[in-house]
Amino acid sequence: MTTLDTEQLAPGLVLGGVDHTARPTWKLRETVEFYRDKLGLPLVHAITAKGWGREKEEHADFIHFFFDAGNGSTIAFFHYIGTDQPPEMAVPRGYMAMASHTAWRVETEAELLAWQNRLEDAGIRVSQSVRHEILESIYFRDPNHYPLEITRPLRAVERIDGIDAELTIDAALALADAGGWTTIEQLWRIKADRVADHQRREAPAG
Fold this sequence. Notes:
Elements lengths: L5 H4 L10 E5 L3 H11 L4 E7 L12 E9 L2 E8 L21 E4 L3 H13 L8 E3 L2 E7 L5 E7 L5 H19 L6 H19 L4
Parallel strand pairs: 1-4, 5-8
Antiparallel strand pairs: 2-3, 3-4, 6-7, 7-8
Helix pairs in contact: 4-5
């Protein structure tokens, strides 16, 4: 298993958590009302600017506004003034579209249920809670159709989870390098060999 030693690249250099995520919106009022009034996220910053960058001649004027998303992070939007949403930037539907999403964390089942009730009372369609390994989550969409999630931990992430993740990705990369793969069973077979190798290396001597 090959891993990158980040200490060799820049000793002591560590990312300090996500500062913000950002997406475009062509629904200014609906976006503000959703995040500020329904989710209760305060507006904390707004940038207004003329078109800039390498496309300055074609770049629309814009507002870039930020909501407090908790724990020092923000969720932000660009509203490009006087433009229409390009067809290629339409938010897709279906299960693949759910991969690009923002998730907030709560700590208890009661909090998760309270958020589900709050969202439904605000007229927002919310999924039933879904348990997936170490998380339990509810899902919904904002006025732009961007997928959102509120999740709670079912248990703490442990060292064995990181080991399992490394073995899983190592097996996936091996399959990709060998010309691709089509089923999860192929990955499981390769991963099983790596798990066995790891167990042999970690077994006590003697």
